User: Which sequence fits this backbone?
């Protein structure tokens, strides 16, 4: 028995739970095996370390309860915020759609803008919209003095007479 | 540790509706806390802050005393207890979180295997195998520490 390595005994159960027979076996073997002697020594120190660690008590801070309650309150509020978050996301989608539409409309305006303005100009020219009559009639009465209106009309008549 | 306790309370509060009353409330709370601690240990393991190779001025002599005197008492003065506890933290940080949990629960707190199985949700066989491996890893970590200590003592002496 003394020839059998004892590391298995050390790993099978907690160091403090080793029975008298276990310890007798371990000690008889460690007397002839350096490797197991150092393993036994390390297991004993490991056990001391574990017990030193578990013996240490940790007191919670004075504000622990306040911290936990605050965290719980925050946690409780978050589900109520969910509809707001959903609304915000829906609004975001709506704004994105509107932005895309705006871009499309702007593009259409730019590409179709020049021919339209040209056709408007052509129509205006064909109907003689820029003749003095149209200019006078197009303006508000208040913008022209009476003598300006009269002189314009007379000029027209003179022009027609010629 | 306070952070773990706070998160455990918070989870217990938010998941209270999931508690079906099958097991004890204490067991349910222990399981939440255990999972929380394992998760925190796992994330802490990804960014190790201290190493066993960095022994303080007090930890070196503590180890020397332990090596020199096999009959040294487990519970010493509070100051030496704190030194040992700090050193234990360093050695334990080299172990996987699951091993630490099992080792501290069974060897440190003397919890029965059955309770640890309930806490972790593992089978009792798995807890036993974990404990077996954890003891080996802990012992090997201490052996390495002792070897390093002896080497550094030799270098200082020579």
Assistant:
């Amino acid at each position: 028995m003394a020839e059998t390595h004892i590391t298995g005994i050390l790993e099978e159960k907690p160091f403090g739970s080793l029975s008298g027979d276990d310890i007798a076996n371990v000690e008889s073997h460690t007397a002839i095996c350096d490797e197991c002697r150092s393993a036994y020594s390390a297991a004993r120190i490991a056990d001391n370390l574990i017990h030193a660690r578990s013996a240490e008590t940790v007191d919670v801070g004075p504000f622990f309860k306040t911290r936990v309650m605050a965290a719980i309150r925050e946690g409780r509020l978050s589900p109520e915020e969910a509809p707001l978050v959903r609304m915000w996301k829906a609004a975001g989608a709506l704004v994105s759609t509107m932005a895309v539409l705006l871009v499309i409309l702007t593009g259409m305006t730019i590409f179709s803008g020049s021919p339209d303005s040209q056709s408007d100009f052509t129509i205006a020219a064909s109907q003689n919209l820029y003749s003095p009559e149209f200019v006078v009639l197009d303006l508000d009465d208040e913008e022209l003095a009476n003598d300006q209106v009269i002189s314009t009309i007379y000029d027209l008549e003179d022009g027609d007479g010629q | 540790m306070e952070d773990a306790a706070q998160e455990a309370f918070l989870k217990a509060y938010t998941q209270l509706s999931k508690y079906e009353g099958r097991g004890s409330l204490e067991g349910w709370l222990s399981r939440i806390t255990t999972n929380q601690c394992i998760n925190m240990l796992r994330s802490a393991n990804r960014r190790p802050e201290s190493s066993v190779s960095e022994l303080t001025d007090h930890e070196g002599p503590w180890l020397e005393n332990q090596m020199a005197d096999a009959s040294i008492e487990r519970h010493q003065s509070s100051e030496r207890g704190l030194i040992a506890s700090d050193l234990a933290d360093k050695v334990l940080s080299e172990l996987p979180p699951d091993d630490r949990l099992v080792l501290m629960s069974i060897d440190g707190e003397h919890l029965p295997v059955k309770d640890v199985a309930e806490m972790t949700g593992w089978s009792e066989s798995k807890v036993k195998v974990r404990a077996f491996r954890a003891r080996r890893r802990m012992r090997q970590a201490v052996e390495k520490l002792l070897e390093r200590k002896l080497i550094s003592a030799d270098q200082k002496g020579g």
In short: The two ends of chain B are 43 Å apart (CA to CA). Helices of chain B lie at 2-14, 25-45, 59-68, 78-92, 97-108, 113-120, 124-157. Chain B has a mean pLDDT of 82.
